[in-house]
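Q: I'm writing up a methods section and want to include an example of the input and output format. Could you take the sequence below and give the corresponding predicted C-alpha cells, formatted cleanly so I can copy it straight into the document?
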Amino acid sequence: MDQFQRRPSVVEYNRASLKQALKTVKKFAELEGLGAQGKSAEIGK
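A: Here is the clean output for your methods example:
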C-alpha cells in the first residue's frame, strides 16, 4: 500500500528578522493563497 505523508515546516523569526523578511513572506503567502498568514506576519512585526 502506498502512503503519502506531508511533513510540515515550522519557521521561527524574531521581530527584527521578520521585519526584514516581511515583503518576501507576504509574497509567498499571496502566491500560496494564504492571505491570513500574510496578514498575521505583518501584525507580528
